[in-house]
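S2.1 Query sequence (Mg2+ and Co2+ transporter CorA)
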Amino acid sequence: MPDIPADVCAYLRDVADHHQRANEQITGFDELVTGILNASSAQLSVQQNADMRRISAMAALIAVPTMVVGVYGMNFDHMPELTWRYGYPAILTVIGVVCTLIYRALRRNTWL
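Output structure tokens follow.
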């Protein structure tokens, strides 16, 4: 650039150098913030997954007694367990055993 004095050219090169350094710094900060946000999002996703497992495990534990009690709450006349003296304790025992087995399985698989 023949019409621009040498000291102005040196100043403009210095300004361009500062601009380039600032641009690289901004790009580095942008990548750093993006990485932090991605890590935070991944951590939140893992926590939500663990919460959903616990909720599903509790639903599984509640589903078994609900189903059994729902069947026996229909007031059928011809169910063998209704005339048997130990029918009620037997059903309660079955519900307890099944719920215990489900609880142990969920505990072993770290869902609870």
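The chain has a mean pLDDT of 90. The chain is about 85% helix and 0% strand.
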